[in-house]
Amino acid sequence: METKSIMIVGVGGQGSLLASRIIGNVLLSQGFEVKVSEVHGMSQRGGSVVTYVKYGDEVNSPVIVKGEADIIISFEQLEAARWLPFLKKGGHLVTSTQKIDPMPVINGAAVYPDDIIGKIKAQGVDVIAVDALTLAEQAGTSKASNVVLMGVVSKKMQFEESVWQAALEQCVPAKFLELNKKAFALGRAAE
Q1: Closest by CA position to 43, among listed 9, 73, 76, 71
Q2: Could you confirm whether domain 4-189 is CATH 3.30.465.60?
Q3: Is the pTM of this model over 0.90?
Q4: For residue 4, what is the DSSP state?
Q5: pLDDT digits (tens, 9 = 90+) for 121-169
Q6: 57-114 tens-digit pLDDT
Q7: Residues linked to residue 36 through DSSP beta bridges, in sequence order
Q8: Which helix (H) or strand (E) holds 86?
Q9: Contact 55, 34 (CB under 8 A)
Q10: Distance between CA atoms of residues 169 and 171, nearest Å
Q11: Which of 9, 17, 151, 162 could disulfide-pair with 79, CB 3.0 to 4.6 Å?
Q12: Does an H or E element contain 56, and which?
């Protein structure tokens, strides 16, 4: 199998590490070689973060270059736009509709762009945009929007739902498992 690439992008504190652990667990359980990068960027709350996940029969490096990502999972709209050049032609962008103002917007030096998702779709990109924050709140906590997006992405990958459920059981602490399973199910049903 050729190597496949997934980028997880967002803002510090949104749960990209858990998301990469869940995806990595799914891929390892299916016999793939998997490489996950360290988080690049400012990982404190509010800074832009990106995690690379590569998998296949043989993976030499976790780094993803422009035009190489099969899937980009974005926890925030502006991050989807920022990392879009890394998506390959025919790739999938799964994004939350959530907006988090970056520092230049907060201190008045810039304005949050209008209709980001519409502009990306106008470029012919396959975009699945869901209100992951609202779905996470329906599941019981706003902190589960990352797992909502895992539910959405699970439909774009060829693995059985049971494999994803097993990954949740491996990666999510027991006291938060049912809540996260609910968030995953809401994401899987979205679109």
Answers
A1: 9
A2: no
A3: yes
A4: E
A5: 999 999 999 999 999 999 999 999 999 999 999 999 989 999 999 999 9
A6: 999 988 999 999 999 999 999 999 999 999 999 999 999 999 988 888 889 999 999 9
A7: 53
A8: none
A9: yes
A10: 6
A11: 9
A12: strand 48-56
Site of tokens 């199910």: 185
CA-based nearest residue to 185, from 134, 154, 151: 151
Q: Token pair of 162, please?
A: 């049971």
List the structure tokens of 180. Answer: 């996260």
The pair of structure tokens assigned to 31 is 């016999």
Whether 97 contacts 130, CB under 8 Å: yes
What phi and psi, each to the nearest 5 degrees, are found at residue 104?
-60, -30
Q: Are the CB atoms for 66 and 86 separated by under 8 Å?
A: yes
CA distances to 13, 76, 79, 117, 185 from 46, rounded to whole Å, are: 7, 11, 12, 21, 27
Separation between Cα atoms, residue 87 and residue 121, nearest integer Å: 13
Length of the chain: 191
